[in-house]
What we know:
Mean pLDDT: 78
Order of helices and strands: HHHHHHHHEEHHH
Structural class: mainly alpha
Distance between the termini: 117 Å
Amino acid sequence: xxxxxxxxxxxxxxxxxxxxxxxxxxxxxxxxxxxxxxxxxxxxxxxxxxxxxxxxxxxxxxxxxxxxxxxxxxxxxxxxxxxxxxxxxxxxxxxxxxxxxxxxxxxxxxxxxxxxxxxxxxxxxxxxxxxxxxxxxxxxxxxxxxxxxxxxxxxxxxxxxxxxxxxxxxxxxxxxxxxxxxxxxxxxxxxxxxxxxxxxxxxxxxxxxxxxxxxxxxxxxxxxxxxxxxxxxxxxxxxxxxxxxxxxxxxxxxxxxxxxxxxxxxxxxxxxxxxxxxxx
Length: 280
């Protein structure tokens, strides 16, 4: 399944950094504590992003957010390669400079990496669920979730292979120090992530998102179609109440007229009693 390969790609990208930690220590003078801070920063940002990634995908599209996660990770990994090659800033020559660059440049970059990678797993699960029969969804998604471990294994194997192939001395020289092309690991992963993001964009249909939008549209149409009916019922009820009120009013007036007529008909008073002339 294509989405399983995409999920494995995220895990493979993390193994690239694991594979070159030794080179960070030997060539860039990164202490173990600094590498631990980078890992912690990534995990905290990744875990925080997972809390909101599903909601963001439901609002803006699960497939769209998964593409953003893949493409964003590719950009971060490529930027990491440029930093580690000294193309953005000179390479550190001691632990003090390594701490400065690590805290000011690598740590924010790795925090962004955690947030963009958090967009991957929840949204890819949503995209996959749209292609699976609900009766078999538990089985399929259970098997699909093993892609994380598979991605770790494949990513570390590929990174190790690239390191072995790039073991010769490279042409890049910075401050008198000759470096090997160990950063090819980052470039290989970045290119792969860019390719699979294009594959997701053109080769996978987001049926779950389309179904959710269709359901929302149907609900909106249902509400709109029922509103005139409610208005008609309300108007009919008002008209009926008005008719009843008018009928009661006419009955009351008629009753008063009948009462006045009967009281005058059977009255024992003489009309002369009320005459002003006779009273005088």
